[in-house]
């Protein structure tokens, strides 16, 4: 395990909830609380669940050439992202494979905020900034509180001057919530309508406590990291560490984030050359099993290996389904394909199914 060198201002709150900590991006995060992760999962789907996602890395790009720097570092056209908007997409290596993913927020006045995982996004942005009139600076203090679920709007709307019902998906505003200055964004990692608050560390506990106070009669719960795994699997939300490492966007169904006709971006030549030559396809499977797979299992057809199970599969207690994202040879990736899972306690059978299995039209996030 990597050494923990970063600490959330909410750590004491997590300990009060019985948090059992594990390292993620060098920060101790609450993998579980004393509450049942299944109840936390239910809160996200039926009311709202609150997560401390401060562990995700953040950096700012500022200066006259800030847009040009990021436009070279990501696959989508940053010039189309207006102030007050954001967009999600991948960062590539020169070889055309994904080294990180993240959300780029246009804050206006030649300033951008990038929120990403544990990959090379900042390193790539720094390389793209060489010779440009722009600076790339790590923001290690900014905290991220995420409130996800159908009652998130009802809870937050009375406590911010923003017209929250009118805020569109992947839009944001600098405002206050419970009187605390923050960047309020309609984004999330749940498959639900939700909001994320980027706040200075000394204000994080105020927002956290107020959400729990005003949400106590609404079914709102603080949620541990354990509950996010089935939530994100139901919604087919990709996690770089488990689903994207060293793959092309074509292989992981992210072609929609590639603007092929924009000016040059890192890895463009290799990426375009790789189109149509995918080594595998990212697919979803439903396993004939009443628990989650371990991850890493081989997938077989008639004794031939045709793919592998990605890390962190999940069992949805709400849908009574064992779900996993997998890599399959393109020729066997059709929906309905039957597979055998070569597991230590198996084998088991599985079927390629259409993902997401929850809110298949994504109306809950986009409406």
TrEMBL record:
Q: What class of enzyme is it?
A: transferase
Domain GCVT N-terminal residue range list: 10-262
Q: Which organism is it from?
A: Desulfotignum phosphitoxidans DSM 13687
User: In terms of domain of life, where is this protein from?
Assistant: Bacteria
Q: Identify the residues that the record assigns to the Aminomethyltransferase C-terminal domain, covering every copy.
A: 281-359
Which amino acid positions bind substrate, per UniProt? 196
Q: Write out the GO biological process terms.
A: methylation
Q: Which InterPro entries match?
A: GcvT/YgfZ/DmdA, GcvT/YgfZ_C, GcvT_C, GCVT_N, TrmE/GcvT-like
Q: Name one GO molecular function term.
A: methyltransferase activity
Key words of the record: Methyltransferase, Transferase
Name-wise, this protein is Glycine cleavage system T protein, aminomethyltransferase GcvT
E.C. number, please?
A: 2.1.2.10
Q: Which Pfam families match?
A: GCV_T, GCV_T_C
The primary gene name is gcvT
Please name the Gene3D superfamilies in this protein's record: Probable tRNA modification gtpase trme, domain 1 (3.30.1360.120)
Transmembrane feature ranges: none
